[in-house]
Design brief:
Distance between the termini: 36 Å
Bound molecules: adenosine-5'-diphosphate, magnesium ion
Largest sheet: 4 strands, antiparallel
Radius of gyration: 17 Å
Strand order of the largest sheet: 1-2-4-3
CATH topology: Transferase(Phosphotransferase), domain 1
CATH class: Mainly Alpha
Helix content: 25-40%
Strand content: 15-25%
Structural class: alpha+beta
Number of domains: 1
Order of helices and strands: EEHEEEHHEEEEHHHHH
Number of helices: 8
Low-confidence stretches: none
Shape: globular
CATH architecture: Orthogonal Bundle
Number of strands: 9
Length: about 220
């Protein structure tokens, strides 16, 4: 779809979506101004389904998720892409927000200025750093999360810690393991970062500044 000559993506919410959550997502997006995060053009909140109109990010007009790119073994400069994704996440954290759902479906690849760049999307689970959520899951739900939501840090699933920059860094590390396992095999720097980010102890994980420096 086009809006003033720009290709846009329309995010349509389910009928039961709460207006406050849609407004929150729009409000968060409005505060961003970074090449690794989408621009919000507008929101349609007068009637259901609610919609957000975002800058479209893709390659040759097609939407390419990080997950899809890994599965199709897309040959791109993965080290630079991982550095840029860390940069976008760092920007969010510095603005005071946690993403809380960083995974292969929620990072797009975009062909801008003759190079492929990552764009982090989906701020539906985003929270202010000062208002993180603490999960309280029963044993059965914990097992389900550990199996099907592997990008979520163990301390969140177990309920020992609330969401944090460190739990986002865990998800970032899990994203990296998907590349190091299949595409960039034996890339020592990426291997070391991904392993360090998914350490069980959140305090033993590297910071995004450490990661960005190592990927320079
Ligand atoms: N800015 C965008 N440009 C291109 N495609 C997008 C954009 N935003 C979302 N999409 C597509 O829509 C899908 C769902 O968007 P997302 O924000 O992740 O919503 P959901 O909460 O349904 O997961 C994404 O995986 C992607 O394929
Ligand atoms: Mg999503």
């Amino acid at each position: 779809m086009f809006y003033i000559g720009i290709t846009v993506a329309v995010k349509t919410f389910q009928e039961d979506a709460k207006i406050d959550l849609v407004k929150w997502e729009a409000d968060v997006l409005n505060r961003f101004d970074h090449p690794g995060l989408p621009l919000l053009f507008g929101a349609s909140l007068e009637e259901k389904p609610y919609r957000l109109v975002l800058q479209f990010h893709g390659i040759d007009g097609k939407c390419v998720t990080f997950k899809g790119a890994v599965e199709s073994m897309l040959q791109v400069d993965w080290v630079r892409i991982c550095k840029e994704a860390a940069d976008a996440l760092d920007f969010m954290h510095k603005k005071g927000f946690l993403h809380n759902d960083l995974k292969g479906d929620n990072v797009l690849l975009s062909n801008d200025n003759n190079a492929i760049h990552p764009v982090i999307i989906d701020f539906g689970k985003c929270r202010s750093i000062t208002n993180p959520k603490r999960y309280s899951l029963r044993a059965k739900e914990q097992r389900k999360y550990s199996k099907y939501h592997r990008h979520i840090a163990p301390e969140l699933i177990e309920g020992t810690h609330p969401q944090s920059c460190e739990s986002d860094i865990y998800s970032y590390g899990y994203l990296l393991t998907q590349i190091t396992r299949s595409i960039t095999k034996n890339h020592t720097v990426l291997d070391n970062i991904s392993i360090a980010c998914v350490r069980r102890n959140p305090l033993k994980r590297p910071t995004l500044s450490d990661i960005i420096l190592k990927l320079k």
